[in-house]
Amino acid sequence: MRTLFYFSRLSTMLFRGITIAAFLTLYPSPSFPGETNGEIPEISTAISFDMDNKTVNGRSAVTFRRSGDTAIWTGSLKISSVKYNGIPVKPVYKDGAFTINAGKGSVLEMEYTCASDEKGPCIMGEKGIFLSGNWYPSMEGLEYHRLSALAPEYFTAVSEAESIEVEKRPEGNLYSFSFPHPVEGLNFIAGRFSIKKDTFRDIEIYAYFFPEDEGLADTYLEHTKKYLDLYEGIAGKFPFRRFSVVENFLPTGYSMPTFTLLGQDVVRLPFIVKTSLGHEILHQWLGSSVYVDYERGNWSEGLTTYLSDHLYEEQEGRGWQYRKQMLIDYESYVLPDKEFPLEDFRARTDFASRAIGYGKGAMVFHMLRRLVGDEVFSRALRNFIDSHSFRQASWDDIRIAFETESGKNLSHFFKTWLKEKGFPTIEVKDPEITPKGLQYTVSLAILRKDKAYVFDLPARLKTGKGDAKQVLRIEEEKQSFSMVTDSSPEKLVLDENYDAFRRLTEKETPPVIGKLLSEEKGVLVLPEEASSLYSGLEKHFGEKGYKAKKPGEIRNEDFRDSHLLILDGKNPMVKRLFAGIELPARGFALVVKKNPFDPSKVVAIAHASSKEEADASLGKISHYGKYSMIAFDQGKNTEKRIDESERGWSMPLRETITGLETSGAMNLADIVRKVSDRKIVYVGEQHDKYEHHVAQIEIIRELYIKNKKIAIGMEMFQRPFQKALDDYLEGRIEEREFLKSSEYFKRWGFDYNLYKDILRFARHENIPVAALNIRREIVEKVSKKGIDSLSKEEKKELPETMDMTDEDYRHRLKEVFDRHESSAGMDFFNFYQAQILWDETMAESIDGYMRKNPDRQMVVLAGGGHLAFGSGIPKRVFRRNGLDYAILLNDDSVEKRIADYILFPQPAAMVKAPKLMVILKKEDNGVKIIGFGEHSVAQKAGLQKDDIIVALDGEKVSSVEEIQIFLFYKKQGDSIAVTVLRKRFLFGEREMRIEVTL
Asked: Cys-Cys with 98: which of 91, 338, 767, 862 at CB 3.0–4.6 Å?
């Protein structure tokens, strides 16, 4: 029996009673007809129903075909009489069973009742009767059956049968079910059915539907014919003379020999005839005629899934998508503590067992088919079915069938995929391209990190003139491969059709709800204000082990260790991570995104317009595990989607070489003319390259000529120092005071000559300049200890929204982080937060200025890394206001979408501010010299370590910044008088005046 759905509670059950005494008088215990095989016991059963008391009354006669101890399972049955060869006996019951030492040909007779119970095995209600499992005395293994049932006249009954005879009696309808084959168990269903009959070849097909659904019968019969035709071509002749589609009053999805039993809610779903119906019909071969040896593993669910659900998608060209989804499901649901080998799968009990038995099982058959070829696979499958018809079969029987047809030893294949847990994780070392004559060789090494999996990995090499394909056989922990192509290779894609059962890469894996459902611990981020709106979700996930926290209680480790479920779309945590998200105005929505700091985990946002909407949708979430977003209105699904992810493991090798026609190169004036209509013009720089700043001021000049209403935004100045900028630009203070008030040398540090002309031009032409950056202390603190380390007052300076979801940007930053020696010992998690904080603050500053000054155009000056590909600042500003923009980068690589224009300014020499070439430290009484640079002019002039500088040319100095400002207004070759305090042995400090030539 294969279960797709679960039982639900039944309503009150009231029916007229029919007594077993009357039935047994009218119909004595039946004898078993026809020929039987071997040692399989025969069971003749007669039942009737007491509808008033909701009980099944039964009598079974077991004829044993072999001698020895036999366990008789009675479960919850109430046994009233037991006779062995006509003599009453009193068995000793233990754990729902008793043992009898039976002789060959002996007969055991039992009378019993089974009370209706919503959990089974006997369920009786006003819409019908359902008997499944231990509703009659049974034994381990296969049994021959004959069943007679006296059912209420208003019910029609179905059971495993090649033929059904019905005799109308005053007490009801007497059904006799004849089935000539042994079965693993017997089932019985009765209901108020309308019956439609049809035929397919020599097979009688029936539809048993409730009157309110009889309009579906024709559709189900037509699709049944199509599936019978399909599977007779794949699996051989249909194993029975009749087949029925039976509607159930319970939400079931079963396949038994000769019929499938589908719940009422199930048959009404429009997609069932295109999916589950075919799956259950195929089970007539795989599981209902070739039985599963459950002790040695359940192979039928994987094989049936592969040849039904997967096959239907493959026929539509979507097989690769179905296989990818199986891999996603496995990663989502099969956590380490729920993982087990495929050979240990018996039945689906949860999402994890389904991902193993159905998903991994299907993938194993897919890999087997690719290994032996389509023709061998087809022949082996048919031979397996023919040779094991009405017998139990195991994985070993499947292996033998495929070895026989293929002539290959497949023991290692089956051992690997049945006995090992999980799936392989592989790593690809950077491919190398080697030209050889007119050809290219692409070499790569593949490292297998897990157990001794052997599998094929299809590879496609994309070139400018076509593709080269090759299958890479992975057999060792480390293997080298090479592929040859006649034209320049551009990209290598591994397993783009998902033919191997492997761990997906980060870019192949979309965020899905299944990840949230599988985790047995996590963090539940509560709304900022207490509310009962999400009490249902809170309780449900709390029972799963999710720990509830307020937004302000979330720490870095919560992102690292857990999935997060954020309640309410207005939760401040949403703005902190994703800058807010679009959600339906009404109903309930659940959106899942990758955790920005650990893409293997997810962050979900649940939002509801009312408690009723949240509660109405809660029970349905588990059916949408494959999606990244779902929405409901009054409990009805209105939207669902899966976020985009890469197809296959894609590795760029080299970009197609592009060229620029130099004769058509644009000068700066032409470029400025083309971007002059953009509301924001971003101009990138490498901070210490003077020619970049020369280009910046030229752009500002040209734009100013066209539009006097411009403003400049500068990364170099921090927001708390906007007043110092305004005072200087508006003439209230001079430059020297401005450098001191803005703390330029303390907070930026680059030679002010780099920016001097830009700011002097802005002052001369009354162009406003906006300080864009956040305080340096905050960025440094976050980069070391994360946002959690900030004080309540410091957090007030953070931008209102932050989006941490740009994966390409995160990857680029990670590469920078890994290359930087200074990052040793640092945490990328904190570094990434600091970078986003930096970008978002500048974006917020730009947006704030533009909102207050909508008539202005802004030129933004910032490091190229903040602008490239729009990731750092531009897209974050656009998210806020939608204003059009252009990006101009200086001396950057020519890559697709890196910028609108790349400028190549000629190198330019800058007159640098002179330096004393000393290493300084602030002291209470001045600035101490703690060291000297190479070839120091100060050391040459006589300054010594530990001297305290107190004045320059008679001007008192008390900070390093004051010394830098003083030197800024000097030239190389100037002489200055440096007044220092120098300690003397026994005589205290002495003030000295030393001339230094800069």
From this structure: 91
SS3 140: coil
Residue 832: give its domain's CATH number.
Answer: 3.40.50.11550
What's residue 397's pLDDT?
A: 98
Same domain, 711 and 758: yes
> Measured between alpha carbons, how far is 682 from 695 in angstroms, rounded to an integer?
12
**What is the SS3 assignment for 881?**
helix
pLDDT of 108 strictly over 70: yes
Give pLDDT, residue 465. Answer: 84
Residue 265 belongs to a domain with what CATH number? 3.30.2010.30
As a whole number, mean pLDDT of residues 790-814 equals: 92
> Are 492 and 610 members of one domain?
no
Classified as helix, coil or strand, 59 is strand
- Tell me the pLDDT band of 824, cut-offs 50, 70 and 90: low
Task: Quote the CA–CA distance of 929 and 946 in Å, as a whole number.
Answer: 5
Q: How far is residue 406's CA from residue 401's CA, in Å, rounded to a whole number?
A: 9
341 DSSP assignment: -
pLDDT digits 0-9 by tens, 564-576: 999 999 999 999 9
* Last-in-domain residue among 190, 225, 259: 190
- Co-location of 683 and 757 in the same domain: yes
In a domain, 650, yes or no: no
Q: Are the C-beta atoms of 463 and 488 separated by less than 8 Å? A: yes
Q: pTM for this one?
A: 0.86
In a domain, 446, yes or no: yes
Same domain, 263 and 344: no
The token duo for 614 is 């949240």
> Do residues 719 and 788 both lie within one domain?
yes
Domain total for the chain?
7
Residue 531 sits in a domain whose CATH number is 3.30.379
Report residue 655's pLDDT band, with 50, 70 and 90 as the boundaries: low
Asked if 703 contacts 857 with a C-beta cutoff of 8 angstroms, the reply is yes
CA dihedral sign, ordered 967, 969, 973, 974: negative
Query: Looking at the domain assignment, is residue 649 inside a domain?
Result: no
Question: What CATH number is given to the structural domain containing 479?
Answer: 2.60.40.1840
Mean pLDDT of the 399-423 span: 95
Structural domain includes residue 604: yes
- For 495, what's the count of Cα atoms within 13 Å in the CB-facing half-sphere? 22
> What confidence tens digit (pLDDT) does each residue in 717-750 have?
999 999 999 999 999 999 999 999 999 999 998 9
| Residue 694 parent element (H or E) | helix 690-706
Angle in degrees, CA 602, 604, 605, rounded to 5: 160
Instruction: Grade residue 759 by pLDDT with cuts at 50, 70 and 90.
Output: very high
In terms of phi and psi (left: phi > 0; alpha: psi -120 to 50; beta: otherwise), the region of 735 is alpha
- Phi, psi angle pair for 817, to nearest 5°: -60, -45
Distance CA 700, CA 710 (A): 9
| Range of the structural domain that residue 20 is part of | 1-190
Residues 548 and 632 in one domain: yes
In degrees to the nearest 10, what's the CA dihedral of 714, 715, 720, 722? -10
Per-residue pLDDT averaged across 462-484, rounded? 91
Backbone φ, ψ for residue 441 (5° rounding): -110, 125
Is there a single domain that holds both residue 237 and residue 170? no
* Distance in angstroms (rounded) separating the CA atoms of residues 275 and 376: 26
Query: What tokens appear for 628 in the block?
Result: 């990244």
Name the average pLDDT for the chain.
92
Predicted pLDDT of residue 641? 96
For residue 201, the model assigns a pLDDT of: 96
- 309 and 269 inside one domain: no
Exposure class string for 181-207: b at 16+ Cβ within 10 A, else e: bbbbbbbbbbbebbebeeebeebbbbb
CA-to-CA distance for 207 and 210, rounded, in angstroms?
Answer: 10
With cut-offs at 50, 70 and 90, classify the pLDDT of residue 36.
Answer: low
- Average pLDDT of the segment spanning 337-348: 96
The CATH number that applies at residue 961 is 2.30.42.10
Does position 16 have pLDDT exceeding 50, yes or no?
A: no
Mean pLDDT of 955-975: 94
